[in-house]
């Protein structure tokens, strides 16, 4: 598996680049838009962390500026029904730090800014991200305009109903969680609500 590439930029476009390694092999990599934009012009040197996808009919390489961004991409594509192209679209819109701030603030609506992601999909992706990014902390303060306000109870209920729970049950459990822990953000409240619902079915 290819995990890292250093070499000379042969060509670059909005979402991909071809990098020629010292061994004489040129690798074509798909990239988040900010990474592609930051590459040097043709002839310049670059180094990228790589995620490799092996298919029956293709070998696809996805390049990232940092190891952290590659790990975030792997988290994204582990989400059900979220493929590599959507993962790249999300990282073209938000940095890893911004995604961590979005999760911390319970701002599921922010994901709707990504082309191709609607409100229902954003809620589903947000819920899974809340679990998968748990324990990771942003390294910088939130960028201006990144976070959007919203009612925690309403967002938790919306998230649960999008997962298939009945609204009455979702509202009852969400309200109980927030009564017990009123300082929880949306991500924390969703996690607690899902734990209670799972325990009730056990």
TrEMBL record:
Q: Which organism's genome codes for this protein? A: Solidesulfovibrio aerotolerans
Where does the secretion signal sit in this chain?
none
Region described as Domain III: spans on this chain: 152-202
Give compartment(s). Cytoplasm
Domain DNA helicase Holliday junction RuvA type residues, every copy: 1-63
Q: Share the domain note from the entry.
A: Has three domains with a flexible linker between the domains II and III and assumes an 'L' shape. Domain III is highly mobile and contacts RuvB.
Checking Gene3D superfamilies in the record gives: 5' to 3' exonuclease, C-terminal subdomain, DNA helicase RuvA subunit, C-terminal domain, Nucleic acid-binding proteins
Q: Which family does it belong to?
A: Belongs to the RuvA family.
Q: What is this protein called?
A: Holliday junction branch migration complex subunit RuvA
Q: Name one GO cellular component term.
A: Holliday junction resolvase complex
An example Gene Ontology biological process: DNA recombination
Assembly, per entry? Homotetramer. Forms an RuvA(8)-RuvB(12)-Holliday junction (HJ) complex. HJ DNA is sandwiched between 2 RuvA tetramers; dsDNA enters through RuvA and exits via RuvB. An RuvB hexamer assembles on each DNA strand where it exits the tetramer. Each RuvB hexamer is contacted by two RuvA subunits (via domain III) on 2 adjacent RuvB subunits; this complex drives branch migration. In the full resolvosome a probable DNA-RuvA(4)-RuvB(12)-RuvC(2) complex forms which resolves the HJ.
Q: Give the domain of life.
A: Bacteria
Name the Pfam families for this protein.
Answer: HHH_5, RuvA_C, RuvA_N
| Keyword Electron transport among record annotations | no
Picking any one GO molecular function of the record gives: four-way junction helicase activity
């Amino acid at each position: 598996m290819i995990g890292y590439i250093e070499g000379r930029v042969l060509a670059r476009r909005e979402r991909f680049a071809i990098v020629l390694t010292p061994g004489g092999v040129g690798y074509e990599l798909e990239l988040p838009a900010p990474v592609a934009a930051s590459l040097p012009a043709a002839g310049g040197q670059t180094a990228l962390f790589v995620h490799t996808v092996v298919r029956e009919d293709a070998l696809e390489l996805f390049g990232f500026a940092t190891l952290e961004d590659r790990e975030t991409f792997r988290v994204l594509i582990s989400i059900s029904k979220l493929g590599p192209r959507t993962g790249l679209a999300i990282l073209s819109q938000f940095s890893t730090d911004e995604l961590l701030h979005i999760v911390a603030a319970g701002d599921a609506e922010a994901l709707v800014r990504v082309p191709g992601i609607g409100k229902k999909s954003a809620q589903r992706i947000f819920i899974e991200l809340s679990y998968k990014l748990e324990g990771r902390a942003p390294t910088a303060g939130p960028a201006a305009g990144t976070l959007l306000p919203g009612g925690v109870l309403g967002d938790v209920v919306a998230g649960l109903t999008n997962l298939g729970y009945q609204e009455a049950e979702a509202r009852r459990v969400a309200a109980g969680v927030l009564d017990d822990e009123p300082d929880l953000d949306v991500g924390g409240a969703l996690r607690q609500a899902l734990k209670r619902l799972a325990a009730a079915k056990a």
